[in-house]
Amino acid sequence: MTPALYGTWAALIPPVVAIVLALITKEVYSALFLGIVIGALLYSGGNPIGAIEHFFNILHEEVSGNLGILIFLIILGTIVALMIRAGGSKAYGDWASRSIKSKSGALIATGLLGIVLGVDDYFNNLTVGNVMRPVTDTHKISRAKLAYMCDAVAAPVCIMMPISSWAAAVSGIIDGYDGFTLFVQAIPYNFYAILTLIMVFLTAALNINFGPMKKHEDNAAKGDIYTTPERPYENVAEMKFNPNGKVIDLVLPVIILIVGCVLGLIYTGEFFGGEVSLQEAFANCDAPRGLSMGSFVSLIIIMIYFLIRKAFSFNEMMECLPNGFKLMVPATLILTFAWTISGVTGSLGAAPFVAGVVESFGAGLQNFLPAVIFIIACLLAFATGSSWGTFGILIPIVTEVFPPVNGLPSPILMMAIGACLGGAVMGDHCSPISDTTIMASTGAQCHHINHVATQMPYAVVVAAVCFASYILAAFLPNVIIALPIAIILMVGTLLIIGYLNGSLGKKKANV
């Protein structure tokens, strides 16, 4: 069945309604549900019976397709509960509080861990938040700032990491070229990813905070790391723990989990059959299945390790299983709704509608097209909550708009692909219905709407610099010139913001 409104602007009504309601009410569950209902009614032409049937068809399809991610979330929650119960998190927090002497040091350490775990953004967001949370709490860093550090590092690193699930996804949808080679060549033009990492570490080093984040950080300095009344994870740290826990009880399980997930990803890419390279294995991997398989094997090994260590009894270990599931209930519920509204949006023809908008800019505006593509990617990812879905829609169009020059990809094509990928990440950062944004909130144990509201001004500032940089780069199509200009603009913008809101002045005065 093709709905009457298929491929029209109406396809974006459901996510826009959900996003607006979530930001206004600060309650994401009902906002997402209402967006799904509106989308189902639009699809069925107002027929309530048809809408209910479409709702459950999409729900079944999306949950079945993403079951591996839900399993991974639950297993990760269980591993976190085990580490807390064994005393690993407390021991690591105590060690870090002695070793990391400043707030800036804690934030920079968080960002560096995110870079190290750059193979997959789901795994990155959840692991970094859970590992660094005791450290940031010790240094009175707000949960909103921790969630930002997790989210702002995870996707930008993954989208520039040649060996990652993101590189594999992008390479697989580029036709007419060597997808991996073109992906690598476009990395220097991915201004949003590069400038976001610069913002992360510069704001951490100089303690620059602005927008709603400044209020959260000012309150955290006074002892309130939540700021708002919504504190869904406030009592998690009160779980029992072994007072004799060691730092190794956190570090070793994390290492086991990293190795297990990487092996799971390349296993699903048939690497161990001996017929494909490591890069091909990542390109062919099934991320949901690989992460769930790898994390399951890791969980078994971690449980055996804790029993050998006598960190707790077998019965106490079994108590961690439901506790781990409880940790991930908010994330699984929001993700299920987010996937469903994305499916409903797709069934209304969001992809062909956006494709038509992009193609209409193809003639006569090529120098401005990278900047236009960046903005369209931002808006589409914001509305759908999917960066992968965004570049999956736009990249095939981009490669058609910019044909090869003498059989080679033109610089403007690489710039346009970088703009597409960066815009997809930016919109994903701002969207309340983005799965990775939800996971960053979960890993940092931050109220989801607080994370969205505090991260958005940071993402918008980077996006504004990127937009200007793409216009300049189109007229100076040499990355050796364009990228330094973009970096200078970003650093200058941050310094101006820091001086205007008093962040840099306070830091200097305190010294």
Structure overview:
The protein has 511 residues and is mostly helical. Helices cover 75% and strands 0% of the residues. It has 25 helices and no strands. Helix 8 crosses helix 23. It is globular. The C terminus is likely disordered.
What's a quick, concise take on this entry?
The protein has 511 residues and is mainly α. It is built from 25 helices and no strands. The C terminus is likely disordered.
What distinguishing features does this structure have?
single chain; 511 residues; mainly alpha; 75% helix; 0% strand; globular; disordered C terminus
What string gives the helices and strands in order?
HHHHHHHHHHHHHHHHHHHHHHHHH
Give the total of beta strands: 0
Count of DSSP H/I helices: 25
The major sheet is characterized as:
none
What's the helical proportion of residues?
Answer: over 70%
What is the averaged pLDDT score? 82
Q: Please give the radius of gyration in angstroms.
A: 23 Å
Overall spatial form? globular
- Poorly predicted runs: 507-511
The CA-CA distance between the termini, in Å, is: 67 Å
Work out the strand percent: under 5%
Structural class from helices and strands? Answer: mainly alpha
List the helices and strands and how they pair.
Elements: H1 13-25, H2 28-44, H3 48-65, H4 67-85, H5 88-99, H6 103-116, H7 121-138, H8 143-158, H9 165-172, H10 179-186, H11 191-206, H12 212-221, H13 248-268, H14 278-283, H15 287-309, H16 314-327, H17 329-347, H18 350-359, H19 369-384, H20 387-401, H21 411-430, H22 435-444, H23 448-475, H24 479-500, H25 503-510
